[in-house]
Amino acid sequence: MIVDEMTAFTEAQAANIAGVRRQRLQYWDSTGLITPDVKRDISPRNIVRLYSFQRVVELVVASELRRQGVSLQHIRRIVNHLRQLGYDVPLSELVFARSGGHVLFQHPDGSWEDSNHPFQGVMRQVIDLEEIRARVRSRAARRSDDAGSIEKRRKVQASKPVFAGTRVPVEAVSGYLRAGRSHAEILEAFPSLTLKDIESAEAQLSTVA
167 is in which domain, residue-wise? Predict the structure, then answer.
């Protein structure tokens, strides 16, 4: 059988590939850690769960982290943090590494973050021209009057508030601000944003406070 990203796996297949019991998959589903892409209740004792290729990758990563001694609570914190940053299937979208008792993960822009110290990433010491070009393109693609505006759009980040013209959740930037990250660090983490966007997030935080 040729396996590609369109392949759907049954619960039994997914458990076998991840090397865990089906009961563990069901527990992860019930707690929202990793949920199947399709779930149908045939009867109270018969629930059909189907997992996509990407979701099975998540199961394998979670299983591997558990085998390496990472607690389920720690994995849950990592997943929740990355979901706030806008990742849909975080355990299959990033590169993970273990260093002593730390779990590190690498974002698509190449920067590393330490899960023991959320928002305190291992910053790169080189100036990446490709990243700068991408930042310029992404900011230029937004309308000038979008900067500093916040909106909600159906089917975008579960209809949570995002910065106009982007898919960046306002809560993600608020998390960085609460952690004391500088404007420069936030702009590096979210290339499509501008200083006006950060100021809007700051204004919201001060209102809540």
Answer: 129-208
